[in-house]
């Protein structure tokens, strides 16, 4: 005997005594080897099942054919009648997903579940627990061979409010994504009512949060500017050995960690005459030669690829320009 769950109603007529086995895998059934042979008393069949959320119907019956049903002590018996009583499907959900503690508040969480025994991640062993600080609290309830678990995230209202954003600087093209974990109702200065907001423009942003601890207001400024690194490559140099402007170098001023990827120079026909792939900016030094031979005066094109890291994101940049060689 067992019990199965289904999202559709199952009906099957028995025609001419034909055996009909429900086409379901039982979620709960009597254990293998445990034969239901007590003809006087009630026998309990119980178990645990993790719901998918689509269940609509509970189907009770035998999910095995006669050939696959184990029996004993049945001589000359052509059939049996089973009576089902006290069917219970119990939901284990003693904790909310999130709980907010107001300033100085303590709360009691949890509730009893049938005849289970309990263990919390704090070491407590009762069905309920009194808390007064933030954290993740987990309770396990053991019932026979089944172990159920539930979790609540407890937030302190004042602590979470102190983590709301202060004035923020955004680079152009960047987006500030905010997600405030406090439960409650929200009203932003742009009229939105979510606990999440994406900001791409500068301005003053305000939010009103209302929950069981009260009504709270917060505002902050967002400023945008053009970010990146300032790269300077001279437009001319004179590699004539007089000690003045004899080499071409690259200069970088950057507020973020950065490194070079490649610096290359090409002649007017597109031929590569200089290449440096070191990450060290200081190593970019070109003396106006190619394979040890001084190049003719004229215009040469340079390309510089580098990267910098801001807010944990790697940004790649490629810039180019021209340089004149005078001799």
Total helix count?
1
Biggest β-sheet description: 5 strands, mixed
Mean pLDDT: 87
Residues in helix, % = under 10%
- Top CATH class of the largest domain: Mainly Beta
Query: Oligomerization state of this entry?
Result: single chain
- Between the first and last Cα atoms, what is the distance in angstroms? 100 Å
Query: Widest sheet: strand order?
Result: 17-26-25-20-21
What is the total domain count?
4
Q: Give the DSSP E fraction (strand runs of 2 or more residues).
A: 35-45%
In N-to-C order, the SSE pattern is EEEEEEEEEHEEEEEEEEEEEEEEEEE
Shape: elongated
User: What is the CATH architecture annotation of the largest domain?
Assistant: Sandwich
CATH topology of the largest domain: Immunoglobulin-like
List the main descriptive attributes of the protein structure presented here.
single chain, 327 residues, mainly beta, Immunoglobulin-like, 4 domains, 5-stranded mixed β-sheet, 4-stranded mixed β-sheet, elongated
């Amino acid at each position: 005997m067992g019990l199965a769950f289904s999202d559709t109603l199952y009906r099957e007529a028995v025609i001419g005594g034909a055996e009909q086995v429900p086409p379901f895998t039982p979620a709960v059934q009597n254990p293998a080897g445990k034969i239901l042979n007590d003809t006087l008393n009630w026998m309990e069949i119980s178990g645990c099942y993790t719901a998918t959320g689509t269940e609509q119907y509970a189907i009770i019956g035998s999910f095995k054919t006669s050939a696959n049903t184990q029996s004993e002590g049945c001589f000359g018996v052509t059939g049996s009648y089973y009576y089902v009583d006290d069917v219970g499907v119990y939901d284990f959900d003693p904790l909310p997903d999130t709980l907010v503690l107001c300033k100085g508040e303590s709360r009691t969480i949890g509730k009893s579940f049938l005849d289970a025994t309990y263990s919390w991640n704090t070491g407590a062993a009762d069905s309920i627990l009194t808390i007064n600080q933030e954290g993740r609290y987990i309770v396990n309830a053991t019932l026979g061979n089944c172990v159920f678990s539930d979790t609540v995230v407890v937030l302190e209202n004042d602590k979470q409010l102190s983590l709301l954003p202060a004035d923020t600087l955004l680079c152009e093209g960047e987006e500030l994504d905010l997600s405030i974990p406090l439960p409650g109702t929200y009203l932003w200065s742009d009229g939105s009512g979510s606990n999440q907001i994406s900001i791409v423009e500068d301005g003053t942003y305000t939010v009103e949060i209302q929950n069981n601890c009260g009504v709270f207001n917060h505002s902050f400024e967002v400023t945008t500017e053009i970010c990146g690194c300032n790269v300077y490559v001279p437009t001319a140099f004179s590699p004539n050995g007089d000690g003045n402007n004899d080499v071409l170098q690259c200069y970088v001023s950057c507020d973020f960690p950065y490194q070079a990827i490649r610096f290359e120079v090409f002649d007017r026909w597109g031929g590569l005459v200089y290449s440096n792939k070191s990450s060290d900016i200081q190593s970019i030094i070109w003396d106006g030669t190619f394979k040890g031979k001084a190049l003719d005066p004229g215009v040469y094109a340079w390309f510089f690829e580098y990267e910098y890291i801001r807010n944990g994101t790697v940004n790649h940049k490629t810039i180019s320009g021209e340089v004149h060689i005078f001799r």
